[in-house]
Amino acid sequence: MRLLITGAGGMLGSDVVAEAQRRGHDIVALAGRAALDITDLAAVRACVTTHQPDAVVNCSAWTNVDGAEAEADAAWKLNALGAAHLATACAQTQSWLVQVSTDFVFDGEKGSAYHEFDPVNPQSVYGASKEAGERLVRTALPDRHMIARTSFLYGKSGKNLVDTIVRAAQSRPSLTFVEDQIISPTSTVDLATTLLDLAETPLAGTYHTTNAGQCSLLEFARFIVAEAGLATPVNPTTFAEYVASAKPAAKRPRVSPLERKMLALRGMDTFPSWQDAIRTYLKS
Ligand SMILES: NC(=O)c1ccc[n+]([C@@H]2O[C@H](COP(=O)([O-])OP(=O)(O)OC[C@H]3O[C@@H](n4cnc5c(N)ncnc54)[C@H](OP(=O)(O)O)[C@@H]3O)[C@@H](O)[C@H]2O)c1
């Protein structure tokens, strides 16, 4: 099938391109705004009309969560309008759209894993702009959208927490991580596999797409340090202590692991555990 991939040079986008190549698809890989600025509706329409893809996989986004608080309009423009532009163009060409979204559409107050039927309540400009992008995509393409929410990505083509933890554990006497922030860390390679499964078996809907299981940031860091063969101690702190000392600009959900209910209901859940995914990543 013909796939048009935006954000193809990003952390997720480059693994989506690699997986699409491996599967032998006809690919139009657009690396960044220099190749296609998705905030430009006319350019998006022209590009999608020219290439007539079966599906578009949108890996472009404003991903600087704290920076979005200061540059809110730029984040809204890219995450909400950009997604809407792609959906509008896909409506014209009868293409499907795989729109990548985030656990930050939730407020974290549920206290356990969120599934796709839970209500959203974003707490930051980033989360709100991604949630608006979801809604605009559903409205423009009611029968041909797949919203894939994911969380805490790491992959070889981006700055990510796994590499940061390994480097820090090699150079510092000890590390400190939050023990009561609960996440579903996700490998971009495993996510790319599911995004392409969705594109190939298009069934409209919203899907949670993360590696299986959940962990605290502390467990995540300790697991990575141990798997990297290091003995650096990783000490606990609390979410409240972290927020008080680091003063991040954006509010984040404290407990936002995702349950992959829709993939399970449709018999499409192939995600390995977060631990296996990290082992694979560190080996590669
Ligand atoms: N990273 C995470 O932990 C995480 C967690 C949950 C969800 N997500 C979601 O996962 C998706 C992929 O994230 P990622 O971490 O792979 O992002 P990333 O590495 O920051 O890549 C985003 C891409 O968007 C491109 N871009 C920026 N402005 C653009 C524009 N106006 N038009 C077209 N492309 C533009 C960037 O290219 P240039 O800068 O070269 O233009 C970049 O290649 C996003 O939807 C994100 O919201 C990420």
Question: Can you describe this structure?
Answer:
The protein has helices at 11-22, 41-51, 67-70, 72-93, 125-140, 161-171, 188-200, 217-227, 239-246, 261-265, 274-283, and strands at 2-6, 26-30, 55-58, 96-102, 145-150, 153-154, 175-178, 182-183, 186-187, 205-208, 215-216, 234-237. With 284 residues, it is an alpha/beta fold. It has a domain at 2-155 and 186-213 and 258-272: Rossmann fold (3-Layer(aba) Sandwich), CATH 3.40.50.720. The strands form 4 sheets. The protein has a 6-stranded parallel β-sheet, sandwiched between helices. Strand 4 (96-102), helix 5 and strand 5 (145-150) form a beta-alpha-beta unit. Helix 4 (72-93) runs parallel beside helix 5. It is globular. The protein starts with a strand and ends with a helix. The mean pLDDT is 98. Bound molecules: NADP nicotinamide-adenine-dinucleotide phosphate.
Fold blueprint:
Elements: E1 2-6, H1 11-22, E2 26-30, H2 41-51, E3 55-58, H3 67-70, H4 72-93, E4 96-102, H5 125-140, E5 145-150, E6 153-154, H6 161-171, E7 175-178, E8 182-183, E9 186-187, H7 188-200, E10 205-208, E11 215-216, H8 217-227, E12 234-237, H9 239-246, H10 261-265, H11 274-283
Parallel strand pairs: 1-2, 1-3, 3-4, 4-5, 5-10, 6-9, 7-12
Antiparallel strand pairs: 8-11
Helix pairs in contact: 1-7, 2-4, 4-5
NADP nicotinamide-adenine-dinucleotide phosphate (NAP) binds near residues 33, 36 and 152.
Brief synopsis:
By secondary structure, the protein is α/β, with parallel strands linked by helices.
